[in-house]
Design brief:
By secondary structure, this protein is of the alpha/beta class. The protein is built from ten helices and 13 strands. β1, α1 and β2 form a beta-alpha-beta unit. The longest helix has 22 residues. It is globular, with a radius of gyration of 20 Å. 47% of the residues are buried. The structure holds NADP nicotinamide-adenine-dinucleotide phosphate and guanosine-5'-diphosphate-alpha-D-mannose.
Length: 346
């Protein structure tokens, strides 16, 4: 009997890789998609088959984490064995502009989903997409017992979501886990996160369709891993005998400037000729240094990363070059082109 999974945030970076992984393991996958006036399924279109096709194993449903009755209804209908809650307003800078929406989706949305699981009484396992952003100002290396000191409305919302997940585990005996994932990137990364923005700009400048890249703080340090590998850790967490929380990271640290240098050097450009500072990309409070200690995940889950930041920078830049070669204007092409209007800096 194949298992059934319900994935919120399936249209996002991680959702698309997780859907691929689960389908490869013969799961039936149900994804929750927000209704938008434009299509937002480009990261999973390659996985989709018409539901009338007897081979179809991926099914999409409209839903939103701000809509509790819809979530309960979907759980009742799908009766999943595993629930992966990846949906969030996930952009740290945007969370300063939209703190209330961020809290509603990222924090309260988690409660809505957990409460729906509790009320329906389904014996499903629950994965919560927790974040290294929760550690915020606490110095590295950060591990499962490191105190949280969030520095953004997003980080605060994720701390709430982390604790409500633990609370439902302790109070109601739910099999609920927190994956505390450090930054993970890929060619499918949202175009306003720094790695994708930089990789895309390096490729576009090389191709002669962009001249300048504006960035904020180049000194921040991050532990960047590869998203396609991180979803494997999510799945492993739900296959254990008992629920627990795990840090997932590479254990290596690079600055934003290091990442910029890697991407530009990969296309034989000197980043100093093209990168300019713009204070609009600074945050009201910054997270200076994140480096994860994922030894528990290695020991218990047998999970270890193989891709580190320099290789990630190269593979992301190559993907952007490839997309430009094919004239792909979609999600895999990238940067907000200068002509494309952006409501706020990111
Ligand atoms: P992402 O690309 O921004 O995807 C977020 C997903 O959430 C999208 O599918 C989005 O839908 C959906 N979503 C947003 N608001 C929603 C709402 N109100 N109701 C239902 N769905 C909603 O993020 P990601 O990088 O894949 O990250 C996945 C999860 O891991 C997030 O919870 C993020 O906070 C967390 N996380 C990410 C990282 C990282 O480095 N990537 C690290 C730690 C934790 P649309 O496509 O319609 O926008
Ligand atoms: N986005 C962005 N844009 N960041 C910039 C820029 C810019 O132009 N210039 C410098 N940065 C710096 C930010 O100030 C931050 O220190 C760093 O680059 C990384 O920024 P992001 O790529 O936006 O990621 P993040 O670390 O803030 O948040 C991501 O990782 C978290 C895990 O630690 C997101 O994926 C979160 O959802 C995730 O939880």
């Amino acid at each position: 009997m194949s298992k059934t999974a319900l994935v919120t945030g399936i249209t996002g970076q991680d959702g698309s890789y997780l859907a691929e992984l689960l389908l490869s393991k013969d799961y039936v996958v149900h994804g929750v998609v927000r209704r938008a006036s434009t299509f937002n399924t480009c990261r999973i279109d390659h996985l989709y088959r018409d539901p009338h096709d007897p081979e179809a194993r991926l099914f999409l449903h409209y839903g939103d984490l701000t809509d509790a009755s819809r979530i309960a209804c979907l759980l009742e209908r799908v009766k999943p064995d595993e629930v992966y809650n990846l949906a969030a307003q996930s952009h740290v800078r945007v969370s300063f502009d939209e703190p209330e929406f961020t809290a509603n989706t990222t924090a309260l949305g988690t409660t809505r989903l957990l409460e729906a699981i509790r009320m329906t009484g389904l014996p499903c396992r629950y994965y919560q997409a927790s974040s290294s952003e929760m550690f915020g100002a606490t110095p590295p290396p950060q591990h499962e017992l490191t105190p949280f000191h969030p520095r953004s409305p997003y980080g605060v919302a994720k701390v709430y979501a982390y604790w409500i997940t633990r609370n439902y585990r302790e109070a109601y005996g739910l099999y609920a886990v927190n994956g505390i994932l450090f930054n993970h990137e890929s060619p499918r990364r949202g175009p306003t996160f720094v790695t994708r923005k930089v990789a895309a700009a390096a490729a576009r400048i090389k191709a002669g369709v962009q001249d300048t890249l504006y960035l904020g703080n180049l000194d921040a340090r991050r532990d960047w891993g590869y998203a396609a590998e991180y979803v494997e850790a999510m799945w492993l967490m739900l296959q254990q005998a008992a629920p627990d929380d795990y840090v997932v990271a590479t254990g290596t640290s690079h600055s934003v400037q290091d990442f910029v240098e890697c991407c530009f050097a990969h296309v034989d450009l000197d980043w100093r000729d093209h990168v300019r500072f713009d204070e609009r990309y600074l945050r009201p409070a910054e997270v200076d240094d994140l480096v994860g200690d994922a030894s528990k995940a290695a020991r218990v889950l047998g999970w270890e990363p193989t891709v580190h930041a320099p290789e990630l920078a190269r593979l992301m830049t190559d993907a952007e070059l490839e997309a430009l070669r094919h004239g792909d204007p979609g999600t895999l092409s990238a940067v907000p082109a200068p002509a494309r209007h952006q409501p706020a800096p990111h």
